[in-house]
């Protein structure tokens, strides 16, 4: 979590008058989310008479978020704050990839294959992974899940690849 | 005497073999989660929600409750023995607990933590039983305007008690409220911000969001923290669990104070176990004759926070069971669990589902007893578990979460959404936004909208209804006052930041 190495104001794309980049960018993104929500709910009916339409509450919340996002960004301009923490790409990338793979694979190839492969993809996310160990643990975990979810808990899910079952 | 009849009924329910088993499983899983850093209570409860599908509702809720208070126990064990707080609630316990362990007094520290927790658990159980009925009556006097104001108060509490910037916490709540709007409108059925994605028609499931923001995001964060957390275990031989007479004399008042403080903070919306343990530790330090002993192995520093977090974990069920308002993120997930089983939390639950409410209350006492019996002998095993390296643990958690989310609706889209929220959560952490208020806002969103709409419909569009009804006005006034209080010291604290001594 410590971002001590790049505390120096180097490589900042933000203009100098931004004193708290972490808050500033955070606020801007919230504003973006709020605008997106306003756009997304623009087709919904607003107030009619004194009763709420489907779009009233979403718009109220979106406007609130817009104001709060702006306030956070203003704080980022006015007050000295931390720099944006360094992101690493490896962990997020492989964990996300593992999740996406699982989501795409569970229907066509079933629990056994998708859980095992996802485990190995997720394991790529750490540079400390030892492969033999990971494969053994992954296999055990897959076996455990394959017994736990469908049999012990009675949750129906595809187990094996479709083409093998048929 | 209705109280005793109710409690007796509860014990009959809780002592059925299935429920005893559920209670035991919950307590054990909770302890496990509490011991292992890197998986929090929220993520675990979210992860196990689908598992409770096949269970009867009483058993399911007993198990989930067990996880919550079990985690408080587990967290203290590792805090004391190896200075690794498995849960945020045990961070302060590590301060004095680990020092005691270093001085060879791990046994008494563990015993006092367990005794304190058990005592707190007993008091909290009685408190829930006593306060349940009157609060339910109060709840019946609530109209939509009062409900709305109460939820505002709850959210403000969450903000005031959260660490960090008040402004950012409010922003997170509103973000949560906004997320809760996705899906179908309750009254008109219009699809809102769902972009014609069928899986979004019912809204974002908060198990999905919780798993993303607390489960996946936490994993990703741990990974770039140079995953291998410092785990050189200083495994002490634990000799003699018995505290000395002096230990007991020293810690008894601390346990009582911690229990009272924890119970109060637990009931208040937005509170919860984390704040309770911090507050209890601070209180002990403030009133101690010799504050310098703290941080050097003062037994009060273990007794008070451990009692407080356990008391708070249990009393936070009170607003959920009586008013139907979840005071913190874990309770929000309990709402989810109840909804899955077709139970709408609120004042009517006490009357319509006495088995559920009283069974759960009784099970908490039984669970606490189980924890004290199970955990002291099992300490060695829990500590050994810490040797499982994170590089093997994290892919396992990822897979387990993914299967869990998939099984909720058999929907692959949910898994991808949880992944997306994992990345969003990672971003939030990087920008120092707290994810807990987001989840609370997300759960309260639909309730707030519904009550706001109703209140305005009844008042024929007159917004002054929120201040003209006395109960509602009082609630809003408290909320406003709290907010002012929260903002003022924040301003002052920022100015004095230079002089702040580094505490905890």
Automatic annotation (TrEMBL), chain A:
Residues 25-158 form the DUF1468 domain. Pfam families: TctB. The chain crosses the membrane at residues 24-40, 60-78, 93-124, 131-153. InterPro entries: DUF1468. It comes from the Bacteria. Keywords: Membrane, Transmembrane, Transmembrane helix. This is Tripartite tricarboxylate transporter TctB family protein.
UniProtKB/TrEMBL annotation, chain B:
Keywords: Membrane, Transmembrane, Transmembrane helix. Residues 20-440 form the DUF112 domain. The chain crosses the membrane at residues 12-36, 42-69, 109-132, 138-159, 166-183, 203-220, 260-283, 325-344, 356-382, 413-429, 471-491. This is Tripartite tricarboxylate transporter permease. Pfam families: TctA.
